[in-house]
Amino acid sequence: MQTTTQRFGRLLLVAAACAAAGTAFAQGVLVPQAPPAAPQDTLTRAATSVGVKRCLPAITRLATLTVQGSRSHDVLLDWDRKRPDAGPLFSLIGMEFPNAGVAASITAIPDDSGACTVSAERISVAPFTCASVAQQELAGYKMTRLLPIYAVYTDDKEPTSSVSLIDSPPGCLIIRRYVEYGWRDPAAAPAAAPAAPAGQVAPKRR
């Protein structure tokens, strides 16, 4: 069953194709046409449509990586209706892969300094034991046992990431988690340093 977003998107594509047909014929086949824009992930489109701007580059980066390789995906979005660009955004993404369904959660919270706290979790089920998953994929990781069925794996080279394995016979529930505090858009211009009072020298940036 198609979602409302998919049906609406299909209607827009059909309408755009019909509208563009006359223009293309009028221009002639020898006139070069501009390449179509790369499609955005559903979370980026949804966040943009509700007015999220400050944390949008981080959301896009995480969402693009999350849905990469999926056949289709859709999103459930929660945000502060009164302050869409100043309040937190929470999302749950459902993805369809050739042999499995996967869920992911992406959160972005702006702060007063202009930075964002962002987190992402990718949740999947492997048809293997957690011990075999750890042996094959997490060699060299440090393991912390929280419950007899629950272990967390971390790598010192990636201190803001973790992998949780939860035994769920006959398979293993895998939760990959990433958190970053104080994220800032590297493409944004740095804020100007405040002017020093008369008679004082402004501190140097390091």
Write the layout of secondary structure elements.
Layout: H1 4-27, H2 42-49, H3 56-67, E1 72-79, E2 89-97, E3 100-110, E4 116-126, H4 130-137, E5 142-147, E6 150-155, E7 158-168, E8 171-183
Antiparallel strand pairs: 1-2, 2-3, 3-4, 4-8, 5-6, 6-7, 7-8
Structural account:
The chain is an alpha+beta fold and 206 residues long. The chain has one domain (39-183). Helix content is 25%, strand content 36%. The chain contains four helices and eight strands; from the N terminus they run H-H-H-E-E-E-E-H-E-E-E-E. The protein has helices at 4-27, 42-49, 56-67, 130-137, and strands at 72-79, 89-97, 100-110, 116-126, 142-147, 150-155, 158-168, 171-183. The protein has an eight-stranded antiparallel beta sheet with strand order 1-2-3-4-8-7-6-5, covered by helices on one side. It is globular and about 45 Å long. The termini are far apart.
Task: Give a quick set of tags describing it.
206 residues; alpha+beta; 8-stranded antiparallel sheet; globular; disordered N terminus
What's the total number of strands? 8
Describe the main β-sheet briefly. Answer: 8 strands, antiparallel
Can you tell me the residue ranges where pLDDT is under 50 for at least 5 consecutive residues? 1-38
> Gyration radius, to the nearest Å?
23 Å
Order of H and E elements: HHHEEEEHEEEE
**Overall average residue pLDDT:** 79
Name the assembly state.
single chain
What is the helix fraction of residues, given as a range? 25-40%
Number of domains: 1
Strand order of the largest sheet: 1-2-3-4-8-7-6-5
Distance between the termini: 56 Å
**Helical stretch tally:** 4
Approximate strand percentage: 35-45%
Which shape, going by the Cα principal axes? globular
Structural class: alpha+beta
